């Protein structure tokens, strides 16, 4: 046997295999970078390039396509994500800060004209006038009427309970990428007041960006393929497959009568980075442009949807945060013979691309917008009463013996009379969106998201006057707590827990500011102190932390970090000595400083049913609200070791933890207003 010949043959075969695996598409380098800070999304409207990111919107002249010239920039107080356009207006989603509406009739002087209170973390956005869609992650996609472009009006919600980060509208259809579900969803929106899901398709990767055109749905995917069965952030074992193999573009056909059918899949080079984690697709004639983060962007020929072919890849220089990889691109759009990409660190990039053109607007079917809801302000619901104000209700606090203040979102602050009958006594406008409030003595603090914390003085009749405001760059205050045992004010400020000294209203001081593992998702500070001195705080990727407010200055208590599953919520027990941690499918009761294992909850319902969400305790009843799932549970806590279900129901709105006052349970339910129930409803028969 001639081993030399065999060896030579193997070398040739290996070389041929490598050549076969070498990408056939060409790689292109950028010819321009704005170098003016992070960009997460961009779009071209009326001949102007608009870019958002880093808390700003920027406008660029593209008369010279390969050399954009910045015209203006405007700061927007929010964690900006996506941008869409109609007429003289731009609409920018901003996560927990909702939606900003900007007048862009003058590219040199954009201005904010309205701040809309979205259901949850506004991420994806799409427009088919007069309809606007906002993706709010697990809280669904809300449909909004923009017949008056500067004054969005909520219509309905669809696709709740699915993790939606991007959407598209075209004609009478809505498409959405299901992120962790690895699905793409199709919704009939011919009646925007009652959207109906009609189809869905399986993706071989985490779903995000989508585009609809002429009976086709284009879906961008990322992270891991279906072969990887763990959570995306879990480590890969040697036996695992599919890790990092979710990057790609998938094309489906659809119709009103036929389910979605996958026509083709294009895979991009494999990689995994946990953040940023968004993938987008745009269309230009017969080309799809897919932004794939650390892979840069790809131009894909989709002239034959059943045989999509990658033509080109554009990559940024090495990144600042991860030098071994390219700077990530989170969006890319077609210009004239150029592609503009959103660089997550340095700004807007331009790449030459002969034959590509600015995308033309597709044909749009006019949709009939349903008439506004004519429900009465107060309406009886069995033994309960519902209050539907002009805004989204997230918080309520009692005032005096028979009144309550309500945080009503875009509707500001409302004062209600509870007894002898229900009545609206006053409405007070706020500078920002009223998302939470707290009252102690004659001081009312209102969390106003990106507009900070407003501080009001209250007279004996409930009239209020603003006397101070806490605001700093990058702030987004979503929760405020005023413990009865402490002079301090506690706030969730986006990813920071902060303790404020408001003794001087003209000079509010931050006495502690600390970030945790992950972000805040919902109200994460216990409403009262445990043992009259410890504030309890939960981050979504960690266990509880305790802060001693009796020391000067306050500081984090040096208790051991608790291991196990992440905690959903923390609430102080009625004895004031312990806290209840909601985690997994039940809860654990502990004292601050206890070194316990949170791998499994100490207490569960005998039926095995989950107890999850955000919690509050009213008397001896534990209420848990799973806002995204719209599920509320009332659990008997007379024996905390053996909880018993009292009542479980599904709401139409987005519920928040209730409070007990004057014999009534007050449950904020977002767009569905405030539900006021007699406490006796939850008494054992």
Q: If you compute it from the alpha carbons, what radius of gyration comes out, rounded to the nearest whole angstrom?
A: 27 Å
DSSP strand tally:
58
Looking at the overall shape, the CATH architecture of the domain at 24-234 and 241-352 is 7 Propeller
Unreliable parts = 1-22
CATH homology-level superfamily of the domain at 24-234 and 241-352: YVTN repeat-like/Quinoprotein amine dehydrogenase
Q: What is the level 1 CATH name of the domain at 24-234 and 241-352?
A: Mainly Beta
Helix content: under 10%
- Counting DSSP H or I runs of 4 or more residues, the number of helices is 1
Helix-strand makeup class? mainly beta
For the largest sheet, list the strands in their spatial order.
1-26-25-24-23
| Shape field | globular
Output mean pLDDT.
91
Give the helices and strands, then pairings.
Blueprint (H helix, E strand, L loop, with lengths): L2 H19 L4 E3 L3 E2 L7 E5 L2 E6 L2 E6 L7 E7 L7 E4 L2 E5 L5 E5 L7 E6 L7 E5 L2 E5 L5 E5 L7 E6 L5 E7 L2 E6 L4 E6 L7 E7 L3 E8 L2 E7 L25 E6 L7 E7 L12 E5 L2 E5 L5 E5 L7 E6 L14 E6 L3 E6 L3 E6 L25 E4 L2 E4 L7 E5 L3 E5 L5 E5 L5 E6 L7 E5 L2 E5 L5 E6 L5 E7 L6 E5 L7 E5 L2 E6 L7 E7 L18 E5 L5 E5 L6 E2 L6 E2 L2 E6 L6 E5 L2 E5 L6 E2 L15 E5 L2 E6 L4 E6 L7 E7 L8 E3 L2 E5 L5 E5 L7
Parallel strand pairs: 1-26, 47-51
Antiparallel strand pairs: 2-29, 3-4, 4-5, 5-6, 7-8, 8-9, 9-10, 11-12, 12-13, 13-14, 15-16, 16-17, 17-18, 19-20, 20-21, 21-22, 23-24, 24-25, 25-26, 27-28, 28-29, 30-31, 31-58, 32-33, 33-34, 34-35, 36-37, 37-38, 38-39, 40-41, 41-42, 42-43, 44-45, 45-46, 48-49, 49-50, 52-53, 53-54, 54-55, 56-57, ...
